[in-house]
Structure formats: C-alpha cells, structure tokens
Amino acid sequence: MQADSIVQRFPDLRVASIRLHWSLPYPRPARKLEPQNAKNDLWGWVQQDSVADAFLRCITLPDGTFKGHEVFYIAAPEIANPALDSKKLREEFWPDVPVKEGWDVSGATGFFDCTKAKEILGWVHTYTPSPEDDEDAYVETTKAQLLLLT
After folding, report:
1. What is the pLDDT of residue 130?
2. Residues 71/66/58/68 CA torsion (nearest 10 deg)
3. Does 111 score more than 70 pLDDT?
4. For residues 31 and 45, what is the distance between their CA atoms, to the nearest angstrom?
5. Domain count for the chain
6. CA 26 from chain center: how many Å?
7. What does the alpha-carbon distance between residue 145 and residue 137 come to, in Å, rounded to a whole number?
8. Cα(59)–Cα(116) distance, integer angstroms
C-alpha cells in the first residue's frame, strides 16, 4: 500500500516489492519440519542464490520494463519436502481455502505463483541438489572434510 502511494506521488519511480519465502542455502532445514509446523509457510522455501538473482534483476531492469509498483513472489516451484503431497497437505490443513483456477496442486507442486517474476524479471528458481540435501551424505561429507584438516 505504501509503495502504491509513493508511485502515485512520483510517477517516474518504479518499485518492485519482493515477497520472499524461507531463504536457505539448501532445503534440508525446511524438510525437517513436521507438516503441522510448516503449514503457515505453505511448506515452501527458496534457494538463497536464486533470491540474490531476483534482487539483481529488479535493480538492473531496463527502463520501461514496468511502471509503478509490482509485487513479485519469489519461491521454489515445489514444496521443500518432495516426499509430501501438496494436494494431501492442502486437504488436511487448508481444506476451505480455494485454489486459483488452473493451478495444479499435486505431487510436490508449491503453492506460490511466481509467473509474474518469470514474465517481467525473467526470474526462475534455480537450485542444483547437493550432498547437503541428504543428511547422511552431509554428515559423511563433513566427517571427510574434518579428516582432511587433521
């Protein structure tokens, strides 16, 4: 609301409001949450380097890309824990909340529509899975790194 007022007063000003989700280097911390504890965050996350990319795109857009105030959702296209099912989560925790027409809530599909970020900013979530995603692999990698230091 404040951004809308500011751009009315200064029509040449452009404001991009970034609505981030839980910004993490990798999704493991979000995956560890029980579904009940993550329901208010809609089980989402976003990789921190991808967040930085969104911010850079906002401040380096050519003039005329958009005017006034725009809101961009910046989140991963899938929920943090791919072992869970979005449709079942919605039915269990948010049964009375309508889903946007045409939005497929199934499998590990996330609940955030980042289409505007893609269309205007050219932003898409990027993340390459790493050993940190798998806790056992992460522990083994850490142990191996510690052995190298000794």
Report:
1. 73
2. -60
3. yes
4. 9
5. 1
6. 12
7. 12
8. 16
Per-residue pLDDT reduced to its tens digit, 95-109:
999 998 988 899 999
> For the residues of 67-100, what is the DSSP string, one character each?
-EEEEEEE--SB-S-TTS-HHHHHHHH-TTS---
Provide the pLDDT for residue 23.
94
Element (H, E) at 48: helix 48-60
Q: Which has the closest alpha carbon to 45: 77, 75, 86?
A: 75
| Residue 82 lies in domain | 2-149
Q: Based on the number of CB atoms within 10 Å of its own CB, is 80 exposed (0-12), middle (13-18) or buried (19 or more)?
A: buried
Structure tokens at 119: 């269309």
Higher pLDDT, 74 or 149: 74
Residue 138, pLDDT > 70, answer no
